[in-house]
Amino acid sequence: MIVGAFCWNVLFSAGLSFLASLAVVWLFARRYAAARPRLAVLLLAMPFARAAFDVLRGIPEGAFFWERMAGAVQEKGAFRMGFGVRELGPKLEVALGAVRGGMVIPQSAADVLAAGLDRRLGHGLSAYLGLALGLVGLALAARDAVRLASASRACRRHVAAGSRIETRHLLGRAVRVVVSPSWSGVPFAGGLLRPWVCIGESLHRALTPEELDAVVLHELAHLRSFDACFLVAVRMLRAVLWFVPCAGWLARAIAAGCERAADADAVSRGARPSALASALVRAAEGAVEDRGMLATFLHPGPALAQRVHALLHHDPAPTRWHARLAHAALLLVVASTVLRLTACGNP
Fold first, then answer.
1. Cα 264–269–271 angle (5° rounding)?
2. What is d(CA 76, CA 84) in angstroms, rounded to the nearest whole number?
3. Which of 16, 141, 164, 302 is the most buried (most CB within 10 A)?
4. Cα separation of 337 and 151, whole Å?
5. In this structure, are residues 170 and 190 in contact, taking their beta carbons and an 8 Å threshold?
6. Partner residues linked to 166 by β-bridges
7. At 122, phi and psi to the nearest 5?
8. 72 in helix, strand or coil?
9. Element (H, E) at 75
10. Are 277 and 284 within 8 A, CB to CB?
11. Which residues pair with 107 in a beta bridge?
12. Rounded-to-integer distance, Cα 347 and Cα 206, Å
């Protein structure tokens, strides 16, 4: 029973933190989605980071949960709301408490709801619900892990079947650019120690030299930012938070943002926007024809039209040092606000 009650408390509190964090970062992310897509991606990832922090931290030692598990009953409840500015930015707090013996003990909304469910619908109901939430989340995460492992093996088979056409250098690593006759979908990149970029043979024949260079620069941007590892982590967290509204939507928004960020990075390193846009369209045509399982992980996505439009109307943002410093400061302030946020969860 205590395992189920623990899962209920932790997952419910993580879900509240996720939604509250999303409300904090959404306006900032929208502001920078077009001009600074990488900054927008980092901002959008914060709700997942906060939820992961809550899950890994568990329930604090001084929380009322532990006293409730020992049979304690609260005398009355307490509520506290606050907003202030501290060293690294704003601090938002909406906190609940349980009054017992004249002391206010921190309490989460999950605790309050669990007590109500157990009292009205049956003792232990919240624990069974928490166990169900945890088991379904683990099952979904395991399913995604198996699918991703299978897709990774398929990627490596396509790379092994291909031939190297050039070598690029990135962060002290030699990146092989491979043309594979067995792959007809969109180009992809991978490998941590021995990175590679794989392009289908049919697409390679259709691309002009300028378009090919733009595609390679785009994939190198993914490698430079370690997008594959980042998106796998987001996918796993989305599986664990399967019951939280907007979790799936946010994961898709982050993936689309990574693609826009890679487009912007490629253009900043010499790719012509119109060449990259035309290469995206050619790659999307091949992806539509490929119906295999791997195509479900490597596809241009529904935001393709937006990416092409952004490239054809490309307006380079200033990259002066003070602008970068301002964006770094914004990221630090928002991250500090999100990590210190209390939204009726475990403080």
1. 75
2. 27
3. 16
4. 37
5. no
6. 177
7. 140, 135
8. coil
9. none
10. no
11. 96
12. 57
CA angle 100-103-105, nearest 5°? 80
Q: How far apart are CA 36 and CA 23, in angstroms?
A: 19
Global pTM reads 0.91
Q: How many CA atoms lie within 13 A of 258 on its CB side?
A: 23
DSSP state for residue 35 in the 8-state scheme: T
3-class secondary structure, 171: coil
DSSP conformational letter for 297: T
Amino acid found at 248: G
Q: How far apart are CA 312 and CA 278, in angstroms?
A: 10
Distances (CA, A) of 235 to 60, 85, 95, 344: 27, 33, 30, 26
Nearest Cα neighbor of 296 from 180, 155, 176 is 155
For the chain, 347 residues long, give each residue's pLDDT as a single digit of tens.
788 989 999 999 999 999 999 999 998 888 888 788 999 999 999 999 999 999 999 998 888 888 888 888 777 888 888 887 766 678 888 888 888 877 888 888 988 888 888 888 877 888 899 999 999 999 999 999 999 999 899 999 999 999 999 999 998 889 999 999 998 888 999 988 899 999 999 999 999 999 999 999 999 999 999 999 999 999 999 999 999 999 999 999 999 999 999 999 999 999 999 999 999 988 887 665 444 445 445 555 557 888 888 888 866 655 676 777 888 888 888 888 888 888 888 87
- Whether the Cβ atoms of residue 11 and residue 55 lie closer than 8 Å to each other: yes
Secondary structure (3-state) at 205: helix
